Amino acid sequence: MKKFALSFEMRYQYAYNYQLRSPPMDTANEKPDFNLDTDVKYPSDYAGQKLFVQASDWQNNAMLGWMHFPLGLYACGYKEAADGLLFAIEHRKVSLDSVIYPLVFLYRQGLELQLKLILPLARRLANKPAKADHDHRLMPLWAELRTLLNELTPHPDDKELPALEEIIQQLDEVDPQSFAFRYPATKKGEVSLPNIRHINVRHLGEVMDSAFMLMDGIHGELGAMDQYEEHGEW
């Protein structure tokens, strides 16, 4: 069977055209800016170089490993990355229909890590045994946390926890295993998101901001309780 092969020049023409698919926006005139830098770099320009390096432009050097318990930093990072994507969407720097998938994933991952950050603290305060949280499902994590919160800081008339639970439950129903916004099909070959056709990113961002704000408040409240138990002061 004769195989079709592109010429060397055609391969790199396709590679260059890839850059033209999502050109930067001229925000003043609200239209694509095709005045791209012609100094295109290919993988061969970086041959022999390490991927993860520290460079002289110090302001672009991220620092890793400086926290003993970095889970909170991870959780915050996913939320801030989602906020960054929303900013890029607002300024028309990215394609809305393509970045919606990483956007929702970032929100969901941040919320999952936030739950896994708070749960060990709540268990310790309630004198419950420690355990590893390897499950990706949100509702089992939330259900345990809410039970502990009702025991540690009961607020019978609180309307915020039920509202937060609605948000978490909706995310969990749509993406129970943190899979649906990473892959278009399940392991069984079924469509990952068969019942969703539109997502308003402004509304999504507002709702998720409220959820993360309350989660931060819960973490802070439990942290104050922990400090009081350890040191006898708030």
Give a topology summary.
Elements: H1 8-20, E1 25-26, E2 31-32, H2 71-90, H3 96-125, H4 138-152, H5 160-174, H6 201-231
Antiparallel strand pairs: 1-2
Helix pairs in contact: 2-3, 3-4, 3-6, 4-5
Overall helicity: 40-55%
Structural class: mainly alpha
Strand content: under 5%
Low-confidence segments: none
Q: Would you tell me the overall average pLDDT?
A: 88
Number of domains: 1
- Total number of strands: 2
Can you walk me through this structure?
- The chain is an all-alpha fold.
- The protein has one domain (68-231).
- The chain is 53% helix and 2% strand.
- The chain contains six helices and two strands; from the N terminus they run αββααααα.
- Strands 1-2 form a two-stranded antiparallel sheet.
- Strand 1 and strand 2 form a beta hairpin.
- Helix 4 (138-152) runs antiparallel to helix 5 (160-174).
Comma- or semicolon-separated keywords:
234 residues, mainly alpha, two-stranded antiparallel sheet, 6 helices, 2 strands
Short description:
With 234 residues, the chain is mainly alpha-helical. It has 6 helices and 2 strands.
